[in-house]
Give the backbone structure.
Amino acid sequence: MEFKALKFTNGQNKEFVAVLRERVNQYFKDHDISTYGNASMFVKMVFMLLLYFIPYGISVSGLVSNFWILLSLWVVMGFGMAGIGFSVMHDANHGAFSKNEKVNRFIGLVINLIGGFALTWQIQHNTLHHSYTNIDSYDEDINPGKFLRFSPHKPRYWAHRFQHIYGWFLYGLMTISWSTDKDFVQLIRYKREGHKLSASRSFRRLMVELIGLKAGYFAYMLLIPMLFMPVPWWQILILFVAMHYVSGFLLAIVFQSAHVIETSAFPLPNEAGNVENNWAVHQLATTSDFAPKSKLLSWFIGGLNYQVEHHLFPNICHIHYQKIAPIIRQTAHEFSLPYHVQSTFVRAIWMHGRMLRMLGQNDSIPV
């Protein structure tokens, strides 16, 4: 089925958008700073890469044979993998890491090193999730498959009444699917739906590139460890799954706790393909911040506790979100628009759990 873009109502709250953009732009002018990253971003990039590759290097060196020490190293790799996703490739693939687009493209490719594929990620995240947040059949982040129900507009099955219990265990499988079959399924589907894949590479070339990247990934993540690590092959598989489980769980709880909670709206377009609100107001209604006072959490997850700021200004580097958050909050309140924020990460996770239970036990909920 061909993809059909939705249209947002630009007239409603148009003044809010203009005022907000003017105030945020003025902040950067007044402080004479760039909207892009600075030296701290490069320091963070190096840290996250080392957090991932140093434990890997120690593992394949053959110097460690104790399984529990190796397991600890690969758990650390899981944190490094999540950190790369949160704080490095995410900003780069949004064009916010550097003012140099070539630098953004290059750093954005780091996702390929941790099992993903930059092109399909950009379509799923930048094009679909950011454009159509929480809209059923458009935002793939709320369409994880039949085992989980993230939208009140999806069919409710018997097993969903327990999803607030088993859902947390499935979250850890997210990046395993991502590194195996998901990119292939998405690439084929995006071509069928008519999404623009690449201006310079054919679909066949992209598929060959994807196969090569996956082969290279499994060569260095499984084959090389099996050749050089002094442990049985099945233990290496356990280490690989453990790394992905940690990373997948961290990524899932951060993103879902910002969009699938009790304050979230799940609007539907009308038959003409129009969404009632304008795009900016839609983001306010479907997104929530959390833990704005937690500097350490914010640092590690790439400012994604400021999801409202990120969705309204995805081209601004996350190191600025804490400063522009009061501007957005004040402007939203002046125009009597929602600005959702949960005081702590634990509260956001708790609200996500309650939302899972509501979605699993009720066919429809207020949205």
